Every structure is written in C-alpha cells, then in structure tokens.
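Subject: Predicted fold for DUF892 family protein, 169 residues

User T.R. writes:
Posting the sequence so we have a shared reference for the thread.
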Amino acid sequence: MHDITNMRELVAYYLRLIYEAERELSQTLPKIKDEINSPALKEFISAEVDEKKKQQMRLEMLFVLLKEEPSATCSDDIVKYLISTNSVLREKYGSNEASDHMTITLYQALINYIVNIHKEAIKCSDALGYDVVSRMLKRSLEEERKLSQKLEYLEKAYAPKEQDPSLYR
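User M.O. replies:
I've generated the structure tokens; pasting them so everyone works from the same file.
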C-alpha cells in the first residue's frame, strides 16, 4: 500500500477495508455454515451471505462514484485472523453448541470492526462534502448495526448452558 497523503485517499482506503471484509465474509460464511450445528443458525448465516454480497455491490457503486478501483491490494489482516481463529477453535473443540457460540462471538467482533471503519469513512466523507457517499455509507452502516443487534441476541441465545472448563485452558 502506498502512503495516504490526503482525505480522499483515506476515504478510498476505508472503503477498500470494508469491501475486503465483506468479500472475505461472503466467501467464508458458506464454509462456516457447513460447520454449524443449529439449523436456525445455518439459516441465519445463509441470509447473511446474501446480505454481504449486497453490501459488496453497494461498495462497488461507491468506488464508481469516487472513480476508484476496489482493488484487492488492501490486505485486512484482522478479518483474516478472526476467520482463521474460528477454524482453529472448531478444529480444537469440534462442532458443538459451544463452538457455535464461539463462531457467533467472532462474527460479532468482525461486524464491530466493520462498523467502526464505516464510522471513520463517514467522518472523512462528510469532511470532504461527499454527501452521496456519506448517505450510502450511512445506509450500509445501518445494515451492519442491525446485524450487530441480531448477533448480540444470538450470542445470548447460544451461550453454553454450563461452562466447559476446557474452553478456558
């Protein structure tokens, strides 16, 4: 990545971070869905795959507006780390109710990360007077916040009934 020298480049950088996170999730969620035990959670993940693809399309429209490319040169190590953590935990503890809960918790962390990037991108867009970009980002942010609320509910609903000491080693 080259050095960011102005606010416009910063907006584009934030959009690329969001885009990369959405792309990673839309590719990874189907694999995660196959490892989930709960049918209701599988259904939820399926719907989220479709939503992540819609988010990608919205971001692609923003790139067109800004005359930028959604290049994959923007590596998002946080997203990759959280996704790989889910795989490692499932390998170590198997596929059960506790691992479903861990998946929800990690997904919640990813969505919170995406929400925070949205907020920063909106601040920069507002400062530049990019009203259309800000409006579209705010709509996208609202979708991410709704997802965050659903995940909070699911996190509580799928919390293990009794604590498994092996989870805390």
